[in-house]
From TrEMBL:
InterPro entries per UniProt: Aldolase_TIM, Methyltransferase_A, rRNA_lsu_MTrfase_RlmN/Cfr, rSAM, rSAM_sf
Domain Radical SAM core: 83-309
An example Gene Ontology CC term for this record: cytoplasm
Naturally occurring in which organism (per UniProt): Desulforamulus aquiferis
Domain of life per record: Bacteria
Intracellular or extracellular location(s): Cytoplasm
Cofactor (UniProt): [4Fe-4S] cluster
Alphabetic keyword roster: 4Fe-4S, Cytoplasm, Iron, Iron-sulfur, Metal-binding, Methyltransferase, S-adenosyl-L-methionine, Transferase
SUPFAM superfamilies for the chain: Radical SAM enzymes (SSF102114)
Protein name (Swiss-Prot/TrEMBL): 23S rRNA (Adenine(2503)-C(2))-methyltransferase RlmN
Keyword Transferase set for record: yes
Amino acid sequence: MKYLHRHTPDDIRSVPYGFTYKEMVEVIGESEARSLYSSLYKHSPKKEYLTMSLKTVYKDGNTEKYVFELLDGKCIEMVFIKRQDGGTVCVSTQVGCSVGCIFCESGRNGFVRNLTPSEIVQQVILLRRKVNRIVFMGMGEPLFNYSNFIKAIHILRDRNGLNFPTDGITVSTVGPVEQLKKLREEHLKIQLTISLHATTQATRNRIIPNMHRYDINDVVNEALSHAKRHNRKVVFAYLFLQGINDKPSDVRQLARWFRGKNVMLNLLEYNPTSNTQIKKPAKQEMTSFKQQLERAGLEVTMRISHGRNIKAACGQLANKYNEKNK
């Protein structure tokens, strides 16, 4: 890799979870790299290699929320959902978030900083559970931390380490266009989910105010281009907000964009946050909207939320531990 020469043996040994096996070999040699990588990924984590620690765990049925404290005292939250054959881990990429979605707590106190590749990878390592799906749907916008997020994926999938399958990784993004274009050209067959939530620019600006500089049609077109380039179905997440994005005109526009395309619409239910202006919709209203979309020729699923009672569901991961450290 083009940046290998910037690293020293001390860099490798002090923050080893931030490097691929190839980088380690280039800097500290194959023998030491093989031994170190085995220590990192084939055995229980050693304290001297870690740059974060578990602060607390909340549990609700098959869902667990982990709060990790970083070296600078900042905290992040991560969610694990247990399945029959393993589990899904919902990973964070930033402390806080700059996007400002009205339905999400993560950006309530704004953006603090990006997570390093090491901090992203350690969330999976410190879980110490069988994981068969990694979703980048935690705190932060992954594509606004692009280089660290991509490097973390390369580390996680490194065959000398976890050897995690790329098609078991999902990234959820609001769709910054320049970064979507870069992601399309990556040789990574990950699952892409676009947080769309609207069919007009005005409505999207209301729901995701800090994405106003990105035209909604450009976001959709880049995502469809990604689906075509990688021959993979793209998921468009659509939070049902009664009276805001559920009009007949919304159904028609979604059909114009996605009918006959390699796309699935994921209809989301609002999970309560501190925004008291948003009300949880009635289930029958969501079901009716789903049926309208299906009649329009679209493939639609309704997301089942997990961990609502411990504020671990989509939109509920917060930054509250960091408020004391501002």
